[in-house]
Amino acid sequence: MELTQNFVKAKRPCADGYRWYIRNRHNGTDYQHLLNSLVHEGRITDAIWLLDNFGPTDAVLEADDIEADALVFAGTIVVRGGIHVGGVLRAGQAIRTGGGVRAGESITTGGDLEAKAGLYCDGSVHVGGDLRVGWSVTTTGALHVGGVARVHRDLHCDADIDVTGDLLIGEALAARGNVRCGKGLRAGADARSEASIVSAHGILAGADLHAGTHLEAGWGIKAWGDIEAGGAIRAGEGVEAGGVIIAGPGYGIHAGLSVRMDDWHASARIRATEPPARLISGHWAEAA
Questions:
Q1: Mean pLDDT for each 10-residue chunk of the chain (288 residues)?
Q2: Same domain for 134 and 60
Q3: pTM reported for the whole predicted model
Q4: Strand (E) positions, 99-196?
């Protein structure tokens, strides 16, 4: 795709960026060529602006491995090995790798991100489609996924996690920020957040489930270990733990919020090794 002077000017670029385009257009006005030139000269912000304003393409970048200071590509990136980028990694469409993905600043895709090995980012990760990772995910910034997130091993995030679909983790979840799921949350081991955990559907943890503030699910909540929150525990249906259920000081446990009261005995059961304190609603069934 060729970007003409009038086409670029119509998007109202900053004065410095427009001057750069005028000076460099004699080298070619191909869209991806301009993105590559901007990145080569360290003008990463301008390259991102260009991609944001002119959108993705159907182009495909194929390679055995990629190692670069930064990479901004308008189409899909397909790598048989891994990707290691010191700064920004940005794709207008999908990223697919046979190995791992590592970036020093941020990772952003307009479509899916699939890595057969692990994913590490010393910044934020924004995936427009589904996220599929064969090993673990570690990110120091926020994680946003526009579809379903599947992580085969652990997920560690030092900020907020927002997933539009299901969040499915093979082993442990550890987050320092809020965890929000547009559908369900499932972890094979511990699921812990220093802030809140909110799921529009259910929550299932293979070991302990812990939220630093509120714990909330539109359906049921179940953990094979303890369930503990620093704030309130709210569930549309029941709450079941293999250990104890504990709400924060001054807060209660609210189950059956989406169930008729006369159906609580069947659809809003509370099960644990001992009756929880401050049980506001729901039906205490028996010890787990």
A1: 45 51 55 84 86 90 97 97 97 98 97 98 98 98 98 98 98 98 98 98 98 98 98 98 97 97 95 96 81
A2: yes
A3: 0.91
A4: 101-103, 106-109, 113-115, 119-121, 124-127, 131-133, 137-139, 143-145, 149-151, 155-157, 161-163, 167-169, 173-175, 179-181, 185-187, 191-193
